[in-house]
Amino acid sequence: MNNRNINMPKKLLFASVFTAFTIYLVSCSENKETKDNDLEKPIAVTVTTASIGSQNAILASGQVEAAQTANISTRVMGRINRIFVKTGDKVSKGQLLATISDDDIRARRAQTEAMIAESEAAFANAKKDYDRFEALYKQQSATAKELDNVTLQYNAAKARVEAAKQMRSEVNASLSYSSLVAPFSGVVTQKLSEEGSLANPGMPILTVEQSGILQVSATVSESDIAAVHLNDVAQLEIKSTGKTFEGKIIQLNPSAQFTGGQYIIKVSIPESAKPDLFAGMFVNVKIPLKDTVQTQSGSVTVPLSAIVNRDELTGIYTVSSSNTALLRWVRLGRIYSDRAEVVSGLSANEKFIAEAEGKLYNGAPVVTK
Fold it and tell me: Can you give the chain as a three-state secondary structure string?
């Protein structure tokens, strides 16, 4: 009993010492962390005041395309007998590209030839009767009624010959659709069917793009289209290569009914820029404006370099009252050249960090230059 009483104070003493030692270690760690934070060197930043933006250029996205593209199809139904080209082949105007089975059309042509022979024979016989009765009528050996009947038969036979010939022309036209030729010189860019497949009227079999003549097709929003005019100069940049050059707006579609409110413009490509360009390349299009205009609704704009992207969110750094970087989430609108419209999250005349000499993070100490 006495030994138990003697051991209890020892256990309490050990627990008290352990607790005091733990508190001492935590205190030292906190003091060290505070000291390290105090010694962290502030990041030098440039602070700018947000202001109402102005627009000096229109930005659009586009693609390089051939000036002329044709989908090669047939107007008759039949099996595809042969396709003489493949994707990437160069073709010349009038070159045979594919043939469609035309046995039924040739049978119809044989029938029309027989009809023509029959109708011509009937017409020759009717003409003899007409000539004979016309002579008899002049000799007053035939009545006017008899001449009228013979004349009617003659005209009917003549009409049947003409109808048979027109039918032959129709069959010949259908027969020509069974041989598909290139409408212009160019390159085969797509092969959409194979030999043995059933070709239907209007179904594309091949796509041919005109070679050597390239242009850029871009879309402009309805709020900007009024500032775009024919023959305006546009600055073009190929996204994949960074190649830049100037073109001229050669076509402007005045309707956006089928393009979702986007107006299509065509921009020419100079001959010097065509080497190493291929249809389908993406292009950044910048159309400088002759007069600087205010952005819509007098909105605030900031440099694109000041925008911070975090997954699906965009933000901008401001300076807190304790001189630390404070990341503020904002919602962006349209892009004007090298600036972005801030729809919400930043007001006019509010300060934000435009440049920093180090990597910013939320809570980082900063000092303005």
Answer: CHHHHHHHHHHHHHHHHHHHHHHHHHHHHHHHHHHHHHHCCCEEEEEEECEECEEEEEEEEEEEEECCEEEECCCCCEEEEEECCCCCCEECCCCEEEEECCHHHHHHHHHHHHHHHHHHHHHHHHHHHHHHHHHHHHCCCCCHHHHHHHHHHHHHHHHHHHHHHHHHHHHHHHHHCCEEECCCCEEEEEECCCCCCEECCCCCCEEEEECCCEEEEEEEECCCHHHCCCCCEEEEEECCCCCEEEEEEEEECCCCCCCCCEEEEEEECCHHHCCCCCCCCEEEEEEEEEEEEECHHHCEEEEHHHCEEECCEEEEEEECCCCEEEEEEEEEEEEECCEEEEEECCCCCCEEEEEECCCCCCCCEEEEC
